[in-house]
Automatic annotation (TrEMBL):
Localization annotation: Endoplasmic reticulum membrane; Microsome membrane
Full protein name: Cytochrome b5
Pfam families: Cyt-b5 (PF00173)
Similarity comment text for this entry: Belongs to the cytochrome b5 family.
GO annotations of cellular component type: endoplasmic reticulum membrane
Domain spans labelled Cytochrome b5 heme-binding: 13-89
Single annotated GO MF: heme binding
Amino acid sequence: MAEKVEQNELPTCPWYRLCDVEKHRCCTSAWIVINNKVYDVTAFLAEHPGGEEILLEQAGCDCTKIFDSIGHSLDAHLVAEKYVIGELHPVSDLFILTCNRMEQQ
Ligand code: HEM
């Protein structure tokens, strides 16, 4: 019975929208999105083997394609897990924008 209640609980992982992520694009706060997960890589900037600059350039963005195209190792994927802070909200910013516009009409 207790197991059933647990299954029905809402996810505890915070949800962010791309517009939230876009606000974090500097060396004191750098967030990125990879495969719908949100990462705060601020503390990792100086440690990134590919360089701080290249990671900072991607801050505030969904960099799934570029991350995958570089062919990061399994180790890199494991390291990334340490910096997950949440997930991208399943309802996109574009959908919300469209709804807001429709409400205004
Ligand atoms: C949480 C995010 C990231 C983590 C944990 C991470 C980690 C790593 C690690 C461990 C390496 C060493 C090579 C390997 O093991 O694959 C690496 C290399 C590299 N990374 Fe990342 N990375 C991240 C995001 C990115 C992003 C967004 C870019 C793209 C702009 C990028 C570009 C590179 C490049 C160019 C290299 C050098 C590849 C080479 O020398 O062959 N990384 N990264």
